[in-house]
Amino acid sequence: MSFSVQAPGAVVMIRPHHFHPNPETERDNVFQTRDGTRTTVEIAAQAHAEVTRAAETLEQVGVKVHLFEDKTRETPDSVFPNNWFSTHAGGHVAIYPMFSPNRRRERRGDIIEMLKHRYRVQDVIDYSGLEQDGLSLEGTGAMVLDHISRIAYAAKSNRTNEVAMERFCTHFNFEPIVFDAADEAGRLIYHTNVLMCVGTSFAMIGLETIGNMRRRQEVRDRLAENGRDIVELTFGQINDFAGNALELSGAQGRVLALSGRALRALRPDQVRVIERSATLLPLDVPTIELAGGSVRCMMAGIHLTPRLARRG
Fold it and tell me: pTM of the prediction?
């Protein structure tokens, strides 16, 4: 298997027992939708089943999944752990400040302790205190990280504070590239990872969300500068979560995990570009997508070195 610093071979996922779209985030997350055809119990059961199947599918292709349960009722978005922590080569972990009060409860010490036990963790930098100053930086939802070129891409929003991002980039050695991005109606896009995905040999991005033409070209050029193929996504494809994908390293090479809805939105020519370097791995998560996030949001990639298994 060819190693890629961009595509982790392990992820953390959360299986919720009381999932429902978060009323606290509905105002600024236009990707959220309501389902009046099912009861809350049915929705929660479907979400639980979708996470179970997704984790099993990832394991089948050789991606290690650390699956945690969330049996509480106070954390409706806990299925999206990539927003509150990220991991980085060299043994570094970041914990992030969240915009919505009920999302701040998603942070879990048992997950950080598992990372320390199973992987080589050198330090944990906790930015969550910035919430007291009204600053938010929602992890790899707010930022899409190019681990190869050390660039952090971020669309401006109330979930992405530039001061907090500068601190992260200084600590973790990323160059910040910040831009304005909006949907067809001119509304700010709440998270950068719904409009772009950076893989090892390709990048998918909704360039038309960046209204400033000069900035749009700059972002495109930076994504392409190390030879990546650029897959340009339309507004419609972004609405179908085509940008909310994550490249992972499986047993037989790299895979691109995305939702079934996202894959159906891609054109054949776009699929061919991706398949030059990664196998498409669709995961059906329509209930999870009610909350305004998709497959990429469901996985916190582990960019840490595993500890050798202890004997005896």
Answer: 0.93
pLDDT digits (tens, 9 = 90+) for 146-187: 999 999 999 999 889 999 999 999 999 999 999 999 999 898
The percent of the chain in helix, strand and coil, each rounded to the nearest 5, is: 35, 25, 40
Read off the pLDDT of residues 221-251 as tens digits, 9 standing for 90 and up.
Answer: 999 998 999 999 999 999 999 999 999 999 9
Q: In which element (H, E) is residue 229 found?
A: strand 229-232
Which DSSP symbol is given to 189?
A: P
In terms of C-beta density within 10 A (0-12 exposed, 13-18 middle, 19 or more buried), how is residue 262 classed?
buried
Angstrom distance (rounded) from CA 69 to CA 112:
15
CB 198 within 8 A of CB 209: no
Extended beta strands in 26-171, E state: 64-70, 85-88, 92-95, 123-126, 143-146, 151-155
Residue 194 to residue 243: CA distance in whole angstroms = 5
Find residue 124's DSSP bridge partners. 93
For 170, the 3-state DSSP assignment is helix
Domains of the chain: 10-301 (3.75.10.10)
In order of 32, 97, 186, the CA distances from 36 in angstroms are 13, 32, 27
Which helix (H) or strand (E) is 255 found in, with range? strand 253-259
Tell me the sheet residues that pair with 247: 256
List all residues 6 or more positions away from 194 whose beta carbon is below 8 Å from its beta carbon: 31, 238, 241, 243, 244, 293, 294
